[in-house]
User: Fold this.
Amino acid sequence: MEWSKIKNIILLILLLLNGFLLVIAMGQDQQRRSSREQALSQVLQTMEANGVTVSRSGLPQGSALYPLQIDRESMQTSREQAEALLGDCEQREERGGVRMTYTSAAGWLESFSNGRLQAELEEGAVPLNGTATLVHALSVLERLGVDAVLLSQEDGAQEQTLTFRQTLDGVPVFGCELTLTYEGGDLRRIEGRRFFGETVRSGPSEMLNVPTVLIRSLGQRNETGRMSSEIRSLTAGYQYSGGRPYSLVPVWCVETDTGTSILDGATGALRDERR
Assistant:
């Protein structure tokens, strides 16, 4: 038999084999999806039987977040961020690096090792200059090395207040929120908490799936006696440790009609609760 014919036969066999494997893989994927959907439906029925309704539109498909360790940036980098806001400034270290204070003619900024940040700015030091407040606020946060999304905005007669939540590659970092206050067209105050530094994986992803998180949240509801009747959203994110070793822990944020609970992403244990 000619070699060209043998090659065609081999190629045909390989194509048939690949097609067969693809059909098997699609079948297994469909089976997994069906199992997940069945498990979710059963959990939703259980939640409803316990007086809790769940918005399906507020449920994610899944998530695979990894625990992260943070390599702290050098104080020089912190100074560079402060100078991006204040201009040339003086630096003062207190309590062995727990607090760094930066001052200039534009105002002052304090950065704490646990992530706290606060600043007071002089009138006219950081003006809007016709820029939209939201755009300006995001640019200020960028100077401070913070990516964030807007949580709320309050427009008063004398001031505007914008509150942001920090993100990492688009994933929310719960507990790291910053509030910027504008008066008379100038940025006057910044306060809140952030994390900064390079991150590296410190372990495998052990995120609980959505049905399991819902059941754990129901258990937390019954244990704490904080009765809620609706779960409005379920969001995967991180929580900043704020202490050595500095880390970002994968969590689930459960928003209900009575408040918000932060559950450990791997165990479902309650980490934080807010009304």
